[in-house]
Write a structure and sequence with these properties.
The structure is a homodimer.
Chain A lengths: L5 H7 L8 H9 L1 E6 L4 E4 L6 E6 L2 E6 L5 E7 L4 E2 L14 E5 L3 E6 L1 H10 L1 H27 L2 H15 L4 E2 L3 H8 L3 H13 L3 E4 L2 E4 L2 H8 L1
Antiparallel strand pairs in A: 1-8, 2-7, 3-6, 3-8, 4-5, 4-7, 9-11, 10-11
Helix pairs in contact in A: 3-4, 5-8, 6-7
C-alpha cells in the first residue's frame, strides 16, 4: 500500500481539522511512505530529508562531532514527529543532527515545501512548529545538563533502565561501545563502570549483553 | 520616557508591517520598559517573565543544575529577542533557563498573552516563534558539542577571545570562578589552565584580571 492514511496525519497535526480539503490533499499528496531497517541512516546533517512522522519503529536523534564522537539527544517512537530533519522549513534549523533507525521503522516523509505552504496560511501550523522545536529543545537541554553535571554512574544506571524499558525486557544487547556513543563517553569508561555494577551484583555482563539483576538498585542510584 | 517606541518593535518583528493598526496597539500597550543593573537576575526558571527585547546592554542565558553548577548557553545583545523567558506562550517551553544581566541593560518586556493572541491571528508570528526557538536550539547544540567533545584548552582560549571581543578590549575582569561557571567547569581547572597559558606567555594573570598578551596564539589554539 503506498497511499498515506489521512487519519495518521490527523493524529499528528492538531491543526488538521482547520485545513481546507485542498490543503489536506496538498499534505497527503506530498507524503511518502518509507521503510528503514535497523541500523539504517535516515537523515544526516544539513540535508532536507523532510518532516518525519514515525508510524512504527524507533529512531535515534544524535549529535555527531567532527571527531566522530556521538551523544544521543532523544528517541522518536510511534507517532513522534521529527522536524530537525527538515532544515529547509526554517532557515534557522541549521544544526547538523543525525537520525538513525534503531529498530525496523516505517514512517511518513512529508515534503518541507508543502508544510511550509500550509504554515504560511494557517497560524496554528506555525505555532505547532514552534511547539515541536521547543519540546526537542527541552529534551536536549536535559541531556546537556545530565552529561555535564551528573555523575557517570547515575547516568549509566538511568540509561540501562531506559533501554530495558524501550526493549520491554531486562536484557540489553548493546555493546559497551554503543552505550558509550549514546552517552557521549568512551568505551573504557562504560566497561569500567559496568564491571563495578557487576561486582555490586546489580547486573551480569556477558558477551551476549547485559542482564539487569537488581533494577531497583539501579533505580535508586539513578535518582 | 515610558512609552515603547513602535520602531523598535518593527525592527524586532518581521511580521510587523502585516499587523492591523489595532494589533500593533495591542503589542505596544502590552510592552513595558525595564532596566536592570549589571548582575541582576532578569528571569529564573519557569516564571513567565515575558518576551524580552534587548534595547541595549547584555544578558546571559544559562543552565543552572540542581547542584548549583552553571554553563552559559548564549548571550543576548542589542536587538536580540528572548523567548525562553516566556514559557507561557508555548506549552513546551518548560525548560528552566536563567537569564542574568551581564551589563546594565534596558529592555522591553512584552506580555506573553498579547503575543499569543497575535500568533493565533498571523501565521508569520507563529513561524517567527519557531525560527527564534530553533536559532537558540542551534546555539545551545553548539555549546553542548563544545563542552562534551572539545578539549578544555581550546574552549578556554575561545572563551577568552569571545569575552575580550564583547568587552571591546584585551583585558578580562572575570574571576576564575566566573569563567568556570560560563564553561560548566570547576575553578581549579580554569586556574590550572590559565597558569599554563601564562607560562606560554599568552596571557598575564593578576588579581585584577587576565590580560591577553598573544591573542593570535589563543586564536590558533581555539581552532
Amino acid at each position: 500500500m503506498t497511499t498515506p492514511d489521512p487519519r495518521r496525519l490527523a493524529e499528528a497535526f492538531p491543526f488538521w481539522p482547520q485545513l481546507s480539503d485542498s490543503d489536506k490533499h496538498l499534505l497527503l499528496d506530498n507524503t511518502q511512505i518509507h521503510t528503514y531497517r535497523q541500523g539504517d541512516n535516515v537523515h544526516s546533517g544539513r540535508a532536507c530529508t523532510g518532516i518525519l512522522l514515525v508510524l512504527h519503529g524507533q529512531l535515534r536523534v544524535f549529535l555527531l562531532s567532527d571527531e566522530g564522537r556521538e551523544i544521543t539527544l532523544y528517541r522518536l517512537l510511534d507517532r513522534d514527529i521529527c522536524l530537525q530533519s527538515a532544515s529547509c522549513i526554517l532557515k534557522s534549523l541549521t544544526y547538523p543532527l543525525q537520525v538513525d533507525a534503531e529498530k525496523d521503522t516505517e514512517l511518513y516523509r512529508i515534503a518541507p515545501e508543502a508544510y511550509k505552504e500550509i504554515s504560511n496560511r494557517y497560524a496554528q501550523a506555525g505555532t505547532f512548529l514552534a511547539e515541536t522545536v521547543s519540546t526537542r529543545f527541552a529534551e536536549a537541554m536535559w541531556v546537556m545538563e545530565q552529561s555535564l553535571f551528573v555523575k557517570f554512574d547515575r547516568r549509566l544506571a538511568a540509561f540501562l533502565l531506559e533501554q530495558a524499558a524501550l526493549d520491554e525486557g531486562d536484557r540489553i544487547t548493546l555493546t559497551h561501545d554503543q552505550i558509550a556513543r549514546h552517552l557521549g563517553s568512551a568505551r573504557e569508561v562504560v566497561s569500567r563502570m559496568l564491571k563495578y555494577f557487576q561486582t555490586e551484583g546489580w547486573v551480569s555482563v556477558s558477551r551476549g549483553g547485559i542482564q539487569l539483576l537488581a533494577p531497583e538498585k539501579l533505580q535508586e542510584l539513578s535518582q
